[in-house]
Please model this.
Amino acid sequence: MTNDCILQTQKLSKEFKGFVAVDKVDLSVRRGSIHALIGPNGAGKTTCFNLLTKFIKPTSGVILFNGQDITQDAPAQIARRGIIRSFQISAVFPHLTVLENVRVALQRKLGTSFHFWKPETSLHKLNDRAVQLLAEVDLESYADTVTVELAYGRKRALEIATTLAMEPELMLLDEPTQGMGLEDVDRIRQLIKKVAANRTVLMVEHNMSVVSSIADTITVLQRGATLAEGPYAEVSKNPAVIEAYMGSANNELVGAHG
Model:
């Protein structure tokens, strides 16, 4: 494993009662890059994410992070190493303000999330950092807004801020633009590019215009196996990939830059 490779899988596989969901996947995520995992429905993308964050255990294969074997790590150990999956630790407190949600995430990072008996003044020292994080996701002006009142796209931006509060070295984004209108998609796309400037991002994403415009490397999965890997321009011309995306999705794949 080279130094510029932050995450690597070797023949990573997962079987469910004879069904092979992930089939000998070799993944190499370069440090400081945005790496997208794409593929038709049922290709094994989410299962792959669940294996990386140890929500499910691999049947076989190896996962390396910064050169260390983390295959047997528990989910909490994975998070402590700096692999944080967004939207699994999303802003789950709709009736707290935007600022309070980020502060709760900062408390989690400090391991003080359950010290509810502490006076609230002890939390104020976290406010400066929380405001910094809100600025990073363009939500400064919403700091005092109750989260339930946020528009959907801004809720997703808040979820990215709560993820950043955990100081991820590797940030896993699970369908970050799912269910969004064009304006929100564009905002989140720009946001991912911004927060990825000094981090590594691995994302599962259906929206090809997002993938084509921000991903450095794309891994295409089909039926749990790696079909192709490389930059978008190369992958989108691959006959096997075009065939996998037959129909409307195929047009979406090839025409994403249009």
About this structure: The chain has a mean pLDDT of 87. The chain has two domains: 1-88+170-183+199-258, 90-165. Residues 90-165 form one domain.
